[in-house]
Amino acid sequence: MTYQTTDRSEPASNLPPHRILSVAEEELARIVLDIHDGPVQYLFTALSLLTGVQNDLQETEASPEMVARLAQVGMLLESSLYEIKYFLGTFRPPEFRHRSLRSIIESMVVQHEEWTGATVHLETDHVPEDVPLAVKIALYRVLQEALSNANRHAGVDEEWVRLWSDDQWIYLEVADDGRGFEPPNLNDPIEAEREAHIGLRGMRERAALIGGRFALDSSPGKGTKISVAIPLLV
Description:
Elements: H1 17-57, H2 64-91, H3 101-116, E1 119-125, H4 133-154, E2 158-165, E3 169-176, H5 189-193, H6 198-209, E4 213-218, E5 224-231
Helix pairs in contact: 1-2, 1-4, 3-4, 4-6
């Protein structure tokens, strides 16, 4: 297995790496709040108005075609609300600062199981209580992306997650025995920019941003394993 790292010779900003991750989470929280207070409320209001129109039509001689079309509009609005709320729930940042890494990872696993129906086998060993904020953020987002990829692409309903540490590093592995794939060359700018590989690139860059390492082990028909190693002092 070969670990891949990104070229950090030209940082994207003057912020230290751990602050970049923190700022990204703060911005994500703001976006989630804006979506909840804006489009979600508009859709909910539109659905309420539509329900009122449907109730009024019951007292008139509206054509069956119109009733059916309005019912279809209502179904689309309800589906949109559900999908947006699912999206917001997925990307709403947890209380990184006040919770232990073990608690954050356990909650992510439970959430994934509840939303997908999959079974995640979690193993934790020697996970320190005092972990830097940037490490918590990076590992949480890597796990989230890895589990999501397994659910969407691997064709399995069972995954394995292992979290452990030694004196200098903390390690995360996410594996499945699904359909697998031919790993892209993430060091190739063209390959890395392909839409299908954005998630892989994001995991690698989150790890590399704080001096970590990322590895992808997969082949067609033989499952996938994603591994990251991040220094405990960042």
